Structure formats: structure tokens, C-alpha cells
Amino acid sequence: MFTLPLYFALIPFVVVVGYVALMSFLNIVHIIHYGATTFVSFVVTFAFLVGAAGICFVTYNRLLDTDWRQPVELNLVPTGFSDFGKFNSPQP
Amino acid sequence: MIGSIAHFHLQPDEKVIMSLRRHPIVFLAEAAVIAILGLATVLAYFLIVWYQPDWLTGPISRPLLVLAGSAYLLLVWHFFIARFVDFYLDMWVLTTEKILNVEQHSLFSRTVSELDLAMIQDVTSEVRGILPTILNYGYVHVQTAGEVKRFVFEQVPNPEAVRGKILQLVEEERRRTVAAKPALDQK
User: Fold this and answer.
1) What's the predicted TM-score (pTM) here?
2) What residues contact B150, with CB distance under 8 A and at least 6 apart?
3) Which residue range is the domain that position A16 belongs to?
4) Domain membership flag for residue A7
5) Contacts of B93 in chain A (CB under 8 A)
6) Domain count, chain A
7) Do A9 and B81 touch (CB under 8 A)?
8) Tell me: the pLDDT tens digits for B101-159?
9) Is A92 part of any domain?
């Protein structure tokens, strides 16, 4: 068993966000380069950006009160899925 | 529409007759699947509320669930714009001289090909299925002389009318060619 601070969980999340941001940017560049002058592409691009911003905003809001420094105990031997919600900081 | 066509090099006297994309229902069907994938997070939320409510209050499980749900939704949302780009950048342009076929296979794979109307031998339209019949969309196959490969307009609205327009333009092109030939012979 070993412990890691909770902020380590942000690493895969940041990787996903970076990937989505990069690919979305490239997709929007494609739309602008090949057909931006249409109303439809503008509406869809705008809706996409609003949706992505909304997801990020809600995520940020939900995680505001999280203590990212609290340690997480990781047990390499599985103890059962139902223990997931009972994680607590290790007692000093 | 004009912005898309501006990328193609047309002859000075060449006019765009029509530009076609797949029928919007094709993208709407994909968008419905993406919406279902997105709504799976709502289902997952209620399953957790019913079976494992502790997960939503745990000091570690809650942020982990929020991060996982957010990452999943962002990926699904990205899938939406990727599918839209694929749908929107596929197009067929019919001009007085040729047919342009633009296919966006993936983000980094795009094919643009063109076919002179004079090369066309046969045009076939095809509507197959219940939804295509109701909404009147389907395929238009353009067979060229001496070529095994055919140009295919995929899932375009009103394929019968498109076929008729192509045949009309081919006929006009042939008349122009025949009319221009004596003048060239005299030179």
C-alpha cells in the first residue's frame, strides 16, 4: 500500500483536456479554412464552444471545495469495488 | 456555401450550378447517437445515487467521479465536432464544365477530385431504404468513359433531380463541343 496526493488524479484529466482542446482547435481551423462563411458552420462551432466552456465551468464549480493535497491510499491488492466511496484520508 | 467553393479553381466562364452535401438527417442520426452517449452520464449518475450514494459524498470518490464524468463528456463533445467536420466538408460541386468531389476522410485526410462532364457516360440514381425513401435522399453514381472507378454522390437530397441536372449539363457540354468542332476544323 502507498499514498499519493489527490492532485495526481488531475494529470490524466489534464491530458484528456489537452487532447480535446488540440483536436477541437484543429477541427475548427478546418471549418474556418474550408467553409466558415456559412451560417450553419458558425452556429455549430459556436454551440460547440459554448458546450465545451459549460462542461469546463461546471467541472470547476463542482471541484472548488476539493482539498487536492489530501493523500489517497492505493492498495495494489484489490479490496472490492464497494470500498471506493469510503476513501478517507489516512489517520495520523 | 460560397466560402467552400472559393477554394476550387474554376475557369473564367465556368459557373457553379449546384453544390451538394449529404442530407442533414445523416448528421442528425449521428448527433442522436452522440446525445445518447452524453446522456449515459445522467444514467450513470442515477445508478450511483441508487446503488452507491456514498460515492457522491466521499472526499476522494466525489472529485474522481467529477473528473471522470467531465473527461468523458469532453471526449463525447469533441466527437460531435469531429463528426460535424467530416459531414460538412464532404461535398460535391456541379459546374457547367465538371464535377468536383471533395471527401474529408478524417481530420488529416482530404481528397479533392474532379471529372470533366465530357467524360461522363452514364448516371444512375439510387434511393434505398425506408427513411431515404420518405426523406428522398440517396446515391447518384456517375460512370465515366474508360474508367472502372465511379464518382458517387453519397446520401444527397433529391438524387433524381441531381441525376437529371447532370444529364442535362452533359448534353449541353456535348452540344458545345460539337458546335465548336467545325470552327476548330476550319482553322
Assistant:
1) 0.81
2) B141, B142, B143, B144
3) 2-87
4) yes
5) none
6) 1
7) no
8) 988 887 788 888 888 898 898 999 999 999 999 999 999 999 987 655 678 999 999 99
9) no
